[in-house]
UniProtKB/TrEMBL annotation:
Membrane spanning residue stretches: 335-351, 358-378, 429-457, 463-488, 524-544
Alphabetized SUPFAM superfamilies for the sequence: Multidrug efflux transporter AcrB pore domain, PN1, PN2, PC1 and PC2 subdomains, Multidrug efflux transporter AcrB TolC docking domain, DN and DC subdomains, Multidrug efflux transporter AcrB transmembrane domain
Domain of life: Bacteria
Presence of keyword Cell inner membrane: no
GO molecular function (one): xenobiotic transmembrane transporter activity
Protein name: AcrB/AcrD/AcrF family protein
Species of origin: candidate division TA06 bacterium
Keywords: Membrane, Transmembrane, Transmembrane helix
GO cellular component terms attached to this protein's record: plasma membrane
Length: 715
């Protein structure tokens, strides 16, 4: 092979090459964003259409059905679902894995254009949302106020939301639950009839009066002035004094036929924290942004904002995603360092020479640093799967170097000069270690072609492990022989004296070798027993493996507790909020492990589907209660145990029709698409029979003790 010869004869060039790799790797490591999971863009889009003032039936007939009919023709469509609620329509399109989501979005957008003219005139233009990992909020705050509650919307928009949007890496800021100012015109029908007027006339006049008109430009000498005719209402008296008509010589104003009231909209969404009714404030990051950096910068900006807010406004951090990222990445990083330490100790224990150990040790950082370069070039993030690949590879990257070094050492012991021994010793082993490495890669390469969400997660692990193994092969064929030719010295005629540690280790190794010879000799002489034992062990392994439980994504205790519940259809948002308060009380009394200030609830439905865009379920009869628990090592109960205790209490609330408790990590639910581990789909044309069968299946499941969170979607 030419590589060993080139590296040994050009040591400076070889050294500079690996120094360049090291520097490029360190720069890549510094620039890599950190996240809990790989970036995921699921093959799903959601079309949200707002139809103000419409009932759920009108939304279904006039918006959802026309859109669903046209969107069912989208290419590569796997499944389409629609949900119609008051004021808003949700249509979810799920595509086959491997579909280009950008192309699918453009296709859906083109189809929507064909049907837009058939939608109601008051319906807003449909908005398409692509589902990806960056849609999940990285921070959720609860904001409450006392004296300034009526003006909290303007305070949040001007003093909180606007500065947060300017933070680097912040994508979208969504807040719900705030009181929205509304000017109510309560018309007296008798007076209106007396003046021979109609509601539509008043509406037209109000629209015409509340407008600013551009007046063109006026040039005066060297100056050019833009002219505008202001006509917007500035206060409530402007509205009251609008002239409607001249009736029998008398000017009739709006205040003569109606009471004008400055109040607030009747809202259908409620947000609560420990301080009472307030606003839920969510922060999403930009796609590809470093989650930890975004959270850190947002918290810093929020701390600055708090100093300039009125004293009665309280801001509590409810949910964050940096804790689980820090804990998970920290744990894996610790595993890598421990693995590195133990690999070094094992290598030194067997080689028992610092020079040989150093040669082997050098292959580890140069092999691993190549993975960071690959991550940077491929646009990956530092996540649990990329770090897992390093943990897997760290014990294998030294194999090739050990084989090469051992062969070089043998050549030197036979009298060869270090340079020649390095070239010939490495060349002899080149094909062998290449074949060995490629054989190992055959285990990981098929994972690159896996489809679905599993493929997204394990693709990085397969690619990075493969890159690291190839880097270790290249290092063993270049760096190892070059360093060996410089550090290893030819053996002298006099036998080298070794220290006591070496002699003691040698005795242990010789004793082990002697015992191994005896065992090997016995195994060869007793072939039947040896083969039978191997077969029995293999069969027992298969039996045990068959009875080991399997799961899609392992549960991990991130300390998140979420209760999503539904009251009977037709329940008002206000009543749903009352049920949420009962659940808050249950958690307060039964979960001392919660982090103070993180208990909050969001109930009801937004006018524009804002809650859906940040991952919440919504509807006038739907509510969510959230809280965050202390770290697992600071509490006696696991999140699952706490969730089970809360479940028993919540099940006793009579107003709740069905509910679901997530205990552990809301991220797991996000990855699973909020799907249950077991789902039974029932199809047919008779809704009454469908509901009857669904109820029977549910009752049977409830009799099984190993199942919980059993619910149906019957109408």
């Amino acid at each position: 092979m030419k590589l060993p010869e080139l590296s040994v004869k050009r040591p400076v060039a070889t050294a500079m090459l690996f120094v360049a790799v090291l520097l490029f790797g360190l720069v890549s490591l510094h620039k890599l964003p950190i996240d809990i999971m790989p970036k995921m863009e699921l093959p799903t889009i959601t079309v949200i259409t707002v139809y103000p003032g419409a009932s759920s039936e009108e939304v279904e007939q006039q918006v959802s059905k026309p859109l669903e009919a046209i969107l069912s023709g989208t290419e590569n469509l796997k499944e389409i679902k629609s949900s119609s609620k008051e004021n808003v329509s949700f249509i979810s399109l799920q595509f086959n894995w491997g579909t280009d989501i950008n192309e699918a979005t453009n296709n859906a957008r083109d189809l929507i254009e064909l049907v837009k003219r058939h939608l109601p005139a008051d319906a807003q233009s449909p908005v398409i949302f692509k589902i990806n990992s960056s849609m999940m909020p990285v921070l959720i705050y609860g904001i409450t106020a006392e004296e300034n509650y009526t003006g909290i919307e303007k305070i949040i928009e001007d003093k909180i939301a606007s500065p947060i949007r300017k933070v680097e890496g912040v994508g979208t800021v969504v807040y719900v639950g705030q009181p929205t100012r509304e000017i109510k015109v309560n018309v007296n029908p008798n007076k209106l009839q007396a003046y021979n007027m109609s509601i539509s006339q008043i509406s037209t006049i109000l629209q015409a009066e509340n407008i600013t008109i551009p007046g063109g430009n006026i040039k005066v000498g060297k100056n050019d002035f833009a002219v505008r005719v202001p006509g917007d209402f500035t206060n409530i008296n402007d509205i009251r004094n609008i002239v409607l008509i001249n009736f029998n010589g008398k000017v009739i104003k709006l205040k003569d036929v109606a009471d004008v009231e400055d109040s607030f909209k009747e809202k259908d969404e409620f947000a609560r924290t420990k301080n009472g009714l307030g606003v839920a404030f969510t922060v999403q990051k930009q796609s590809g942004a470093n989650t930890l950096e975004v959270i850190k910068a947002t918290r810093k900006k929020m701390a600055e904002i708090k100093k300039n807010l009125p004293k009665d406004i309280k801001i509590s951090e409810i949910i964050n995603t940096d804790e689980v990222i820090t804990q998970s990445i920290g744990s894996l990083s610790s595993s890598i360092w421990w693995a590195l330490l133990f690999v070094s100790i094992v290598v030194f224990a067997f080689l028992r020479e610092w020079k040989s150990s150093l040669i082997i040790f050098l292959t580890i950082p140069f092999s691993l640093i190549t993975a960071f370069i690959a991550m940077y070039l491929a646009g990956y993030t530092i996540n649990i799967f990329s770090l897992m690949s390093l943990v897997i590879a760290i014990g294998m990257v030294v194999d090739n170097a050990i084989v090469v070094l051992e062969n070089i050492t043998q050549h030197i012991e036979k009298g060869s000069k270090p340079k020649m021994a390095a070239i010939f010793g490495t060349s002899e082993m080149g094909m062998a270690i290449s074949a060995s490495t490629l054989t190992t890669l055959m285990v990981f390469i098929p994972m690159i072609f896996m489809g679905g969400i599993v493929g997204i997660m394990f693709k990085q692990l397969a690619i990075l492990t493969s890159v690291t193994m190839l880097a270790s092969l290249f290092t063993a064929l270049t760096l190892t022989p070059m360093v060996s030719s410089k550090l290893l010295k030819p053996k002298g005629k006099q036998k080298k004296k070794h220290g006591k540690l070496y002699e003691a280790a040698e005795k242990v190794f010789r004793a082990v070798e002697t015992q191994y010879k005896k065992v090997l000799n016995w195994a060869i002489l007793h072939k039947t027993i040896t083969i039978s034992t191997a077969v029995l062990v293999f069969a027992f392994s298969l039996y045990v493996g068959k009875h080991i439980g399997t799961d899609y994504i392992p549960d991990f205790d991130a300390g998140d507790l979420a209760v999503v519940f539904e009251t009977p259809v037709g329940t008002s948002a206000k009543e749903t909020d009352k049920v949420a308060q009962k659940i808050i009380k249950i958690i307060n009394e039964n979960v001392p492990e919660k982090v103070p200030g993180t208990l909050a609830s969001v109930s009801g439905q937004t006018e524009d589907g804002s809650l859906t865009t940040v991952g919440f379920s919504e509807g006038k009869n739907v509510g969510s209660v959230l809280c965050h628990l202390t770290l697992p090592n600071k509490r006696k109960r696991t999140a699952k145990e706490i969730g089970e205790a809360v479940r028993k209490k919540v099940a006793k609330i009579p107003e709740i029709e069905k509910f679901h408790i997530s205990a552990g990590s809301v991220l797991s639910d996000a990855l699973l698409g909020n799907k249950k581990p077991i789902e039974v789909n029932i199809s047919g044309n008779d809704f009454e029979k469908l509901n009857s069968v669904a109820t029977q299946i549910k009752n049977k499941f409830e009799e099984t003790q190993c199942l919980n969170n059993i619910s149906t979607t019957i109408d």
